[in-house]
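The authors assume throughout that readers already know how a fold can be written as discrete tokens. For illustration, here is how one protein appears when written out as sequence plus structure tokens:
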Amino acid sequence: MSLLPIHIIAGSIAIVAGFISVFALKGAKLHRRSGMVFVYSMLTLALTAGVMAYFKNQTGNVIGSLLTLYMVTTALLTVRRRAHGFNSIEMTAMLTAATVGIFSIKSGLDAVMYTNGKVNGVPAGMIFFFGAIALIAALGDLRMMNAGGLQGAKRIARHLWRMCFALFIASGSFFLGQAKVIPKPIRIIPLLAFLALLPLVLLLYWLVRVRFTKWYRLRADSFQPTLVRRSAQLPELRSP
């Protein structure tokens, strides 16, 4: 059975659910439900992409799938875990991100030195970009573990930027990577580029709003996690 139909359906659902979640009222039912739909569909998208890339011997796409799995998983764990401490899953995630980053940088260098500047049609600049993001994320994991966990605005920012970047991977892969499958009447390249890059704009917006404005401090009570055992409710995000 081909995984391509599952991959396409999962990707379509992920993009729709992701944009709904990022624009929805934080902590509201729509945000939570669309966010979980986004998580499950992105995990399906990444897993099917990774398996197909493996059998086609497309190592770069396998690495991209690992990065997607890493981003979505760590973003979810950020708001589903206790604010203090860390566990073996997060250590494994950090090592995965570091491996992805190092491999991507090496692939980018190989593309520049030995090929036409591309790997499987992906420009070296994009490979370097994803490698740098993976290494930055791994460094963030290391800092979090060294600090014993994250609280407050830092915790919320970690969740938001990773979710937004995962959405960028999906939107960029579809609106630009698969532009040829979009009907010609609506294949407007500037519009497709805008939709592909919009998650990065939203990523920067949320980082600035959470970390460098009074938005979080004015609503700190809404973000206080309930640090009790498994029977407790999970912490939620709330915003105007």
In short: The beta strands are 118-119, 122-123. The chain has eight helices and two strands. Residues 75 and 158 are 7 Å apart (CA to CA). Residues 225-240 have pLDDT under 50 and may be disordered.
